Amino acid sequence: MVSLLAVVIDLATLASIVSFGALVAFSAVNLSVIKHYFVDRAERGGWGVFNNLILPFIGFAFTVWLWTNLSGLTLVIGLCWLAAGFVWLAVVTRGFQRPTPVLELEE
Prior knowledge:
Elements: H1 11-40, H2 48-67, H3 72-92
């Protein structure tokens, strides 16, 4: 359904919106590495600080820098889409009182 937006939105704007989504995902991965390895598992010895804090922080900083190069329209649409997803998550988890649904793939 979202792909049908290509009929009413020019391709450059649509590509920017996709880029916004990718940057959100890359940011989440970098912040998750910091949370999981540096905070939760406290892997700080040896190369731990470099691999689990500094490198992911640099990656996050690059994604923030790339966000600043997106158009204002892209940021507005992307943030609205992100807010809609957050509201949907709140509805599905009944106000974050239940765990998020998990897709189980069995052969």
